[in-house]
Structures are given as structure tokens and as C-alpha cells.
Amino acid sequence: MGINFTMATESSYKSTEARAYIPFTESHEWIRQLETTFSASSISLSTADEPYGNFGAMFYVKANSDVTIKSLDFYGARIEAGVPVQLYGRPGKYVGHETNSTGWTLMYDNASMEMFGRTSPASLSGLDVNVLPGQFHSFVLWSPNRKIMYNPGTVEEALYSSNEYIEFYEGVGIEALFNGDPNSLSIPRILRGELHFDVKFTGQPSSVPSNSPSAVPSAIPSQNPTSVPSRQPSLQPSSQPSSSPSAIPSQ
């Protein structure tokens, strides 16, 4: 009695593979990540060399982008070394807090700073003050016994200079630090110098696929079967026989 053998053909493999579970590989999975970069920028404060100054100056800025203030350049009245300089800061506008230390944070304290007079600025570096878009941040630059240079303004809190990232507003000069006396303020005043900051940019999602396959396979098989048979036949026969007998009987 003859026994008929049927060799599995490519078409039967295709039929089986169309129903088989096929996990996604790295070629199927695209992880789109936002790219973050930082760009250095600055804004000029008052630039005129005029003979005005006091022991301190107070001002605030408003961020139009996500900025981080990194340093502040300013001018002293004369060239000398060993000058104590401090910088205080607080979120929001300083108005109503000019003579009270509540809410102010000491963010820079140098007991012996070198000053270069009215022609070259000194720099407070190493700052790290993040100001988010739409927010204000106030500062007090203070030296207890040496004059810090500023210029007369027009109206306190008037916008003095700006760019697409940040805005700088006219402030006040101070003769005493947080002494509770409003008569120690000179209004309005504009600090002479420059403010340096980094701008945070978030780019478009990456169009490059991830370097590794996804950790979890997809929950459903691929919509289209593969165009070539699998390397290993399925463990179960196809649910439908091939439409024609195999060309060569099995051995």
C-alpha cells in the first residue's frame, strides 16, 4: 500500500507564518526623543560711564525663555584688590522687599575680589540661577565699603533692555543692606554691566531609530506575512493544505 507524503511548501510556510506570533525588532520600533541643547547669550545693562554709584544695586529680570544665569559683570569706582562682594537673589520682583532680608538668598560671597575700575568690569562667575519663561527674578549686588557703579534711570521698574530671551528692568541703588530704612534707597538706578546666561532649547523628536530593540514585544502579530519562508517550519501543520501536490515526494 502506497503512502503519500507531502512536503511543506513555501506557500504553506507563508500561511502558517501569517498566523504566527512575530515580535517587533529594532527595525520596527522607533523611539522618538526630544533633543535638549544650551546656547550661551548675554544682555547689556547700563553701558554709560558716569560718576554715579553706591554700595549696592537692586534689579530684576524677566525670562522669555528657559534661561540659567551664569555670571554678572559690573564696574567698581577704582582699581583695587581685596574688595568684599556679595550677590543676593529671590524669585519674583523685589518691590516691597527692598529693605527686608526675608526671602533673599545669598548666592555669591567673595571676601576678596579684584576690581578693575570704571573701564574694565569685574565678573561674578559660577552662578546657576534658573528662571523659567514668564517668571521674574530679583538680585542685589552689594559691597559694604566700596562703590558699585550705576546710572540714573527714568522710572523704577521700567523696561530698560531686552532680547528674545530675557528682559532687564530699572531698579534702585542701596546705601545700606536690608536695614529697614526706605530712605537708604536711590530711585531709580540702572546697574552698569552685563548679565550672562544659558538658554535651553528643546528640539524636535529624533527621526533615528533606537540603537536597541524594544524591551517588550508587540501585542499583535505583524499585519503582513514575511516574503520568505521561516528558517524552521512550524510545529503544527498548516490549517489548509497546499493548493497543489509537491513536485518531489519526501524521502
Quick tags:
single chain; 251 residues; mainly beta; 1 helix; elongated
What does this structure look like?
Strand 11 and strand 12 form a beta hairpin. This protein has one helix at residues 10-19; strands at 34-44, 53-54, 56-63, 67-74, 79-91, 105-116, 122-124, 129-131, 136-142, 148-152, 159-162, 166-174, 185-191, 193-205. Mean pLDDT is 83; it is low at 5-18 and 26-31. It is elongated, with a radius of gyration of 35 Å. The protein is mainly β and 251 residues long. The two termini are 17 Å apart. Strands 2, 3, 5, 6, 9, 10, 11, 12 and 13 form a nine-stranded antiparallel beta sheet that branches. Helix content is 4%, strand content 42%.
Topology diagram in text:
Blueprint: H1 10-19, E1 34-44, E2 53-54, E3 56-63, E4 67-74, E5 79-91, E6 105-116, E7 122-124, E8 129-131, E9 136-142, E10 148-152, E11 159-162, E12 166-174, E13 185-191, E14 193-205
Number of strands: 14
Cα gyration radius (Å): 35 Å
Helical proportion? under 10%
| Main sheet summary | 9 strands, antiparallel
What is the count of DSSP helices, taking H or I runs of 4+ residues? 1
Question: What coarse outline follows from CA principal-axis ratios?
Answer: elongated
Report low-confidence residues grouped into runs of 5 or more.
5-18, 26-31
CA-CA gap between termini: 17 Å
What is the typical, i.e. mean, pLDDT? 83
Question: Would you list the SSEs in sequence order as H and E?
Answer: HEEEEEEEEEEEEEE
Structural category: mainly beta
How much beta, percentage-wise? 35-45%
